[in-house]
């Protein structure tokens, strides 16, 4: 019997507004599209539930944070995607997250690993040192996806330096040509798996690319292309781990 070996991809950024949740939702879609199956699940751990709302606007109920704070059951939502369906674990309600949060997080991931090959975890955009839970999620991940803008590349470099042994995929997002940063992104992303980075320009139609897939303007298509290319590169690294 084939043994299921799941991989955990954790999305990181030091601040909000860089496109982390957009990428988390879009990558989950892209993984399912690439496999043609419902193999990836999105775990939203941000109380503002941005990525949940992107993939599934009507998804309420208990989710990751409820599970971590109270160990009550999960209520996943399933939505249509190009790969057939995509599942999302909404954040639910965060009661006091205590010292056992780290074990509860590991339980949550282990439970999901019984059903999915790829677990994409979206986190609030705060520095690692602010939250033991975020730090733990980063440490326990198989791969980190750091979403950054041109003005916060130093943060991507810092995360890269902290996890020298781990594959760190750098997304230089909302890129505007005049502000540079390509060389630095490439350099930061260098690893034994090659250069793990994508430069994704600022597009006018990103929300539509994720949510309203039936109205693909040129900009939406371009954004989807960025995500699909990154998803392929991420998958090829995950296969090697
Ligand atoms: N490549 C891009 N071009 C233009 N807008 C983008 C791009 N990526 C994300 N956005 C927009 O940036 C805003 C913040 O994105 P979000 O994913 O919520 O960021 P974060 O999770 O880092 O706070 C959203 O309005 C989103 O549509
Ligand atoms: Mg977010």
Count of structural domains: 1
List low-confidence stretches.
Answer: none
- Please outline the major beta sheet: 8 strands, mixed
- Helices and strands, in order, run as EHEHHEEHEHEHEHEEEHH
* Shape designation: globular
User: Based on helices, strands and strand pairing, what is the structural class?
Assistant: alpha/beta
Question: Taking all residues together, what is the mean pLDDT?
Answer: 88
Strand-residue fraction?
15-25%
Query: What small-molecule ligands were found?
Result: adenosine-5'-diphosphate, magnesium ion
The H-level CATH homologous superfamily, spelled out, is P-loop containing nucleotide triphosphate hydrolases
Helical content band = 25-40%
CATH topology: Rossmann fold
Compute the CA-based radius of gyration.
17 Å
Instruction: Label the CATH architecture.
Output: 3-Layer(aba) Sandwich
The first-level CATH class is given as Alpha Beta
Tally of strands: 10
Number of alpha- plus pi-helical segments: 9
- The termini sit apart by 20 Å
Give the strand order of the largest sheet, numbering strands 1, 2, ... along the chain.
Answer: 3-4-2-5-1-6-7-10
Task: Please write out the topology.
Layout: E1 7-12, H1 20-35, E2 40-44, H2 50-55, H3 64-70, E3 77-81, E4 84-89, H4 101-113, E5 118-122, H5 132-140, E6 143-148, H6 153-162, E7 168-175, H7 182-188, E8 190-191, E9 194-195, E10 197-201, H8 206-210, H9 218-240
Parallel strand pairs: 1-5, 1-6, 2-4, 2-5, 6-7, 7-10
Antiparallel strand pairs: 3-4, 8-9
Bound molecules: adenosine-5'-diphosphate and magnesium ion.
Residues 13, 16-22, 50, 125, 173-174, 200, 202-203, 206-207, 223 line the site of adenosine-5'-diphosphate.
């Amino acid at each position: 019997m084939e043994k299921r070996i799941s991989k955990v991809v954790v999305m990181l950024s030091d601040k909000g507004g860089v496109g982390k949740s957009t990428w988390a939702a879009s990558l989950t879609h892209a993984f399912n599209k690439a496999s043609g199956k419902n193999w990836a699940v999105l775990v939203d751990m941000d109380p503002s539930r941005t990525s949940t709302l992107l993939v599934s606007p009507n998804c309420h109920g208990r989710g990751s944070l409820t599970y971590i704070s109270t160990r009550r059951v999960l209520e996943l939502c399933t939505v249509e995607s190009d790969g057939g369906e995509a599942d999302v674990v909404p954040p639910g309600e965060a009661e006091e997250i205590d010292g056992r949060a780290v074990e509860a997080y590991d339980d949550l991931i282990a439970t999901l690993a019984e059903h999915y090959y790829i677990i994409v975890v979206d986190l609030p955009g705060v520095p690692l040192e602010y939250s033991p839970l975020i730090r733990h999620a980063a440490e326990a991940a198989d791969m980190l996806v750091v979403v950054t803008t041109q003005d916060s590349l130093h943060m991507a470099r810092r995360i890269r330096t902290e996890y020298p042994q781990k594959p760190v995929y750098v997304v230089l997002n909302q890129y505007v040509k005049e502000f540079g940063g390509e060389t630095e992104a490439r350099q930061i992303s260098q690893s034994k798996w090659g250069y793990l980075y994508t430069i994704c320009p600022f597009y006018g139609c990103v929300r539509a690319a994720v949510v309203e897939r039936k109205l693909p303007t040129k900009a939406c298509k371009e954004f989807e292309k960025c995500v699909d290319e990154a998803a392929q590169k991420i998958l090829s690294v995950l296969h090697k781990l």
